[in-house]
TrEMBL record, chain A:
<dbReference type="InterPro" id="IPR008856">
    <property type="entry name" value="TRAP_beta"/>
</dbReference>
<keyword id="KW-0325">Glycoprotein</keyword>
<keyword id="KW-0256">Endoplasmic reticulum</keyword>
<comment type="subunit">
    <text>Heterotetramer of TRAP-alpha, TRAP-beta, TRAP-delta and TRAP-gamma.</text>
</comment>
<keyword id="KW-0812">Transmembrane</keyword>
<keyword id="KW-0472">Membrane</keyword>
<comment type="similarity">
    <text>Belongs to the TRAP-beta family.</text>
</comment>
<keyword id="KW-1133">Transmembrane helix</keyword>
<comment type="function">
    <text>TRAP proteins are part of a complex whose function is to bind calcium to the ER membrane and thereby regulate the retention of ER resident proteins.</text>
</comment>
From TrEMBL, chain B:
<comment type="subunit">
    <text>Heterotetramer of TRAP-alpha, TRAP-beta, TRAP-delta and TRAP-gamma.</text>
</comment>
<protein>
    <recommendedName>
        <fullName>Translocon-associated protein subunit delta</fullName>
    </recommendedName>
</protein>
<keyword id="KW-0832">Ubl conjugation</keyword>
<keyword id="KW-1017">Isopeptide bond</keyword>
<keyword id="KW-0812">Transmembrane</keyword>
<keyword id="KW-0732">Signal</keyword>
<comment type="similarity">
    <text>Belongs to the TRAP-delta family.</text>
</comment>
<feature type="signal peptide">
    <location>
        <begin position="1"/>
        <end position="15"/>
    </location>
</feature>
<keyword id="KW-0472">Membrane</keyword>
Length: 194, 222
């Protein structure tokens, strides 16, 4: 009986001390946003990852991995990398990482979490995993629909003018021929009268 | 303590001598497509000595000192990103000072701004943000509208589209087959001129006939 209570006491004490010896918790929050108003096929898609160290200790060996969200057959990576790594993020500071991609297809697209691994302190080799926020389902607008709304339409107007020129030039030519014919007659009459 | 360990770790590779930087940067160009401006800078560091390793770098951009992202595959490439609203990231040249682990530790220990400025940076790079565009100032529709309004005005001033007031069905007007009012006006004028000539000729003929007949009467009397 005494042995059991003593054992229980020892266990609780070790548990409590274990918790106390653990230094300040570190919390790394990662958000993943798109900065685009419209996600358009064959146009820049900007993704911003923000890493916030909300804890009171520095985190080390941070690696962000988002290769699975953007497969190479559907997205072209233009600038930035999808798996950067940083040496450290100080306590109460944040970090931004920007990646620019180009979607190759149009239609609905589901963009999920990025995976971030880090170490809580310099000494441990134990790796913590956290997930970023997800963007969710987006519709990638096709190039044609976006151009219809936003392009400068300069070429469209030139083509329209070229098509409208026959409708305008033909009656103009008739008028011009008639005018020159009668102008010459009137000029001749005037010359005769004089 | 942690920094000393880091320095020892770095020293295991050789120090980088006279590094050269090549920068590949991209900034947001279209403000209609993107709600915020973002810049992504990729710096490739090449050391003069072949074995030189740079290790983690820290960047001083806009007063903030942030660690540079590194690629796992290619350790010479470093990535720095910047994001903010269009007003917070204006057009212009941005200078980034790079610090390696040693200079970063010195920078952190610096007490005031002067000491911080005197820390020798590992390198300096810059990139240019050419600004975001919100579309053309004058749209192409404006030019098209001006052109076609000009065509309309030209045809209004020169009576091109005023249809002739031909109401009779007799063969003369049918025969004329008019195209427009000027044609009509011109033809009428010509017609009048020709008819006038004809009338003048007829009058002359009459006078001539009258004079002939009066001559004949005179001759008869005499």
């Amino acid at each position: 009986m005494l042995f059991k209570t003593l054992l229980l006491l020892i266990v609780t004490v070790t548990l409590c001390t274990c918790q106390l010896s653990d230094e300040e918790e570190s919390y790394l929050f990662v958000t993943k946003h798109t900065l685009n108003r419209y996600v358009v096929q064959n146009n820049d898609l900007t993704i911003k990852y923000s890493l916030f160290n909300a804890g009171q200790a520095t985190v080390f060996s941070i690696e962000l991995n988002d290769i699975d969200s953007f497969p190479a057959d559907k997205f072209d990576l233009l600038y930035g990398i999808l798996n950067p790594k940083w040496e450290r993020i100080n306590a109460a500071s944040n970090l931004t990482h920007v990646v620019i991609l180009k979607p190759k297809q149009s239609g609905p697209c589901n963009m999920t979490h990025a995976v971030v691994t880090y170490r809580k302190s310099e000494k441990t080799n134990e790796v913590q995993t956290t997930y970023s926020s997800e963007i969710g389902e987006l519709t990638i607008v096709s190039t044609r629909d976006y151009d219809r709304k936003f392009s400068s339409h300069f070429l469209d107007w030139i083509l329209f003018t070229m098509m409208a020129i026959p409708c305008i030039a033909f009656p103009f030519a008739l008028w011009f021929m008639s005018k020159t014919r009668y102008d010459t007659i009137i000029a001749k009459d005037k010359a005769k009268k004089l | 303590m942690a920094i000393i360990i880091l320095i020892l770790f770095i020293r295991s590779g050789e120090q980088c001598e006279s590094p050269t930087f090549s920068v590949k940067s991209h900034t947001t160009k279209d403000a209609r497509l993107t709600a915020e401006t973002a810049a992504s800078v990729e710096i490739t560091v090449k050391c003069k000595n072949a074995k030189g390793r740079t290790g983690p770098l820290y960047a001083d951009i806009n007063g903030y000192i942030i660690p540079c992202g590194q690629s796992s595959k290619n350790l010479e490439k470093y990535y720095i990103s910047l994001a903010g609203t269009h007003k917070q990231v204006p057009q212009g040249k941005y200078t980034i000072k790079l610090y390696d682990v040693e200079s970063y530790s010195i920078l952190r220990k610096a007490r005031n701004e002067e000491a911080a400025k005197s820390v020798k940076a590992f390198g300096e790079v810059d990139f240019h943000h050419s600004g975001v565009s919100t579309g053309p100032w004058i749209q192409s529709e404006f030019f098209a509208a001006v052109l076609f309004i000009g065509v309309w005005w030209f045809s209004y001033v020169n009576p091109l589209f005023q249809s002739p007031q031909v109401t009779s069905n007799d063969s003369i007007s049918n025969g004329l087959m008019l195209l427009n009012k000027i044609e009509l006006g011109n033809i009428i004028q010509l017609f009048r001129v020709e008819t006038g000539k004809e009338m003048a000729l007829q009058r002359l003929q009459k006078i001539h006939d009258q004079s002939l007949s009066s001559d004949a009467m005179e001759n008869q009397i005499n």
